[in-house]
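A favour, since you know our structure tokens better than I do. Would you make up a two-line entry for one protein for me to read? Write everything out right here, beneath this request.
=====
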Amino acid sequence: MEMIILLCVIAYILGSIPSGLWIGKIFYKKDIRDFGSGNLGATNSFRVLGVKPGIVVTVMDILKGTVATLLPFFFQLDVSHHFWLLTGVFAIIGHSFPIFARFKGGKAVATSAGVILAYAPWLFVAALLIFVISLKLSKFVSLSSMIAATSALIISIFSFDWILVGIIAAIAAFIIYRHIPNIKRIKKGEEPKITWM
């Protein structure tokens, strides 16, 4: 039990790494919280820093979730694979409420995707395809994120892994909750669309 708690703490710290903030400050002398949506996630990194650094931030945020989810495997703990989801969830919490950025983080889309990638790669691929298609059609990252999260929930049901379904349901609900301001802007026609795809 002590080891599981330790891994959850490590996962939270990994999730707390503010990729967009650090890359913006170190390489571009910009605090992305002062621009765009003010969010620390990958989407605002694309808007403020550009496509290439945005891709780097996205990959880093995904890897935070993936590495955190695989911590029980790395430490060779003899526990159920469902414990992988537990450490993954702590990375999502860390990303959304990072200790290194005054507990104001991103919306957890990329890090959640990283958790799914580690636990159920097939589900990650399916959700990613849906995200890309939605983004291509709508040009809204926020809308595409919510559609992908909801689709992941629906698809996960066919795995008959009810713990996975429960976790995905919680993640999807959290992602939608974090996007409430975006939903309001979409309704008002004020949500910015991407221009690079």
